Structure formats: structure tokens, C-alpha cells
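User: Can you model how flavin mononucleotide sits in this protein?
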Amino acid sequence: MIPSATLQDFLRSRRSVRRFRPDPVDSQVVERILTTAIQAASAHNRQPWRFAVVVDPSVKDTLATAMASAYEQDLIADGMSSSARAAALERARSHVLCAPLVVILCMDLSDMDAYADEKRMNAERVMAVQSVANAGTTILLSAHAEGLGAVWNCAPLFAADAVSRTLKLPRSWNPQAMLLVGYPSKESVRRSRRPLREVTLYR
Ligand SMILES: Cc1cc2nc3c(=O)[nH]c(=O)nc-3n(C[C@H](O)[C@H](O)[C@H](O)COP(=O)(O)O)c2cc1C
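Assistant: Here's the modeled complex, given as C-alpha cells:
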């Protein structure tokens, strides 16, 4: 067994990484990371997570362009100037293109329970979202264990149709997020945390 203090230190040392070296991530490493991810806890053990793995640069490029185009519609609706828009879109595209490995984290509600009332349907949906997020967090930590860096990116949530169409995802796969993964090109910044006492109650 790994000593608890060592493991706690490791878990606490994960940081979001947004800039990567161009080196590819070996397919066996990808397999290991996802094999660990599917050990995450899930509501009723229904495992609603689905993973669309993108490593092909041309697919990545098409995906980045499709998401940028959906993003642009939102920025136009926000009234953003065309120069500010161009900068934001370029930034968004470069984030995706810079990552050798992109995992689109999807949710499939097919196996979740169905109820007649809205309240329980909503609770069931939230449980599926929470379960998928567990798998996402496990990917971040598993990538960290492999010496990789990763960041959670929410863009697919705002461009779900564009992602589904571009990647020809099964109809029941609902894009929730993407995890950008690769070997870090620089040391990542340590972001602050609220003190534990501020976010915890004991009763
Ligand atoms: C649900 C969720 C959505 C996030 N979306 C983005 C995002 O779209 N772009 C980004 O750069 N980081 C995103 N992040 C990463 C957070 O900014 C990051 O985890 C937070 O600032 C703490 O930094 P750390 O991960 O380095 O500790 C997201 C994280 C979560 C959990």
C-alpha cells in the first residue's frame, strides 16, 4: 500500500495544466487512464460516463473550429466587438489545438431510472452529472499519476450540438466537458484555496 501521507501529498499536488509539449500520449497510457476512470463511483452503479477520445490533429482542428463557431454566436449575442471576439476565439482554439490528447466527457442517461414526476427526474439527472464528473476528476488525477498535465474545459457544454455533429457521437451521448491532456510545457500556477474552516461545518 502507498503510505497515506504520500498519497495525500500526491492528490493535493494536482494542478490544472493548460500548455503542453507537442509529444503524443501513448495509446497504452490513454487506456490506463480511462481504465482507472471507469472505477469512479456512480449513482446506482449505472456508469453514465462516455469518452470520445480525439488524438488525430485534423479531427482536433475540425472540432476546435466547430466549437469556436458556436462560441462566436454566443459572443455576438453578448455584443462583443469583432476584435475582442477574434482574440477570444483564437485563445479558445489554441487551447484545444495545443493538447495532444482531448477527451470529450459525455453523459448517457439511457440506463438511469425514469420517474413520472419532474422532481425525481431532475434528481436522477443531477446524479448522472455528478457521476460523470467523478469520472472526469479521476481522469485528471490518473493523468497526473502518469506525469501528464490536464485541465477540465467546459466549452462542450456550450457547444454540444457542434461537438456531437463533428465527432458523429451516438445520439444518447451528451457532451459535458472536455479534458485537455498532455505533457506540461511549464510549471503550472498554484491557485489558492479557501481555508477548510470556511467551507466546512461540524455539527
Ligand atoms: C466544472 C469545471 C469547469 C472548468 N472549466 C474550465 C474552462 O473552461 N477553462 C479552463 O481553463 N479551466 C477550467 N476549469 C479549471 C479550473 O479553472 C481550475 O480547476 C481552478 O481554477 C482551480 O485550479 P487548479 O485545478 O489548478 O487547482 C474548470 C474546472 C471545473 C471543475
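A couple of observations from the model: The pocket of flavin mononucleotide is lined by residues 15-16, 18, 151-155, 191 (CB under 6 Å). The longest strand covers residues 174-182.
User: Helpful, thanks.
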